[in-house]
Amino acid sequence: MNTVAPPDIDRVYSFPPISAPNTKVLILGSMPGEKSLQMNQYYAHPQNVLWRIMGDLVGAGRELAYEERVAKLLQVGIGMWEVLESCHRPGSLDSAINPMTMQPNDFNAFYAEHAKVTHVFFNGGLAADAFRRRVKPLLSTDYDHIHYERLPSTSPAHASRNYQQKLDAWRRVIEGLSA
Fold it and tell me: How far apart, in whole angstroms, are the C-alpha atoms of residue 153 and residue 61?
């Protein structure tokens, strides 16, 4: 009888945060998709409109090299991370994430190192829901001042809004920077 558990080939792990001491606004996804994991870049799928939106909002669009986009975000005070540190997910879709395997990132430690964060914007429903269920109950009351808001997903799988509608909603990020 085999008593060794099979390797968890569908367990995926997120990236370290994109952040700096001046990070004021944090954009949170749920977990990088397959293309992002392959390229080791946030929002690498060419049909994901996050970088197009960041281009329109702060000049960090896909016409720049990835490192330049990241530098531009950091320059204006925007950081990026994922709610989940790891999870079991075959494929790229958030709907394929097994909720029982969600392991959140350590937001108490992140906020302790990034005291200027005032606004957190979730890129879609699963990121907001996973944060509410997996992170919020463990979060220190020291961070109750942070404003949280769900924005429409920039994923190509979220087609109920067109680009202009998504861009209009994501303008809240700029409002967060100036708050």
Answer: 17
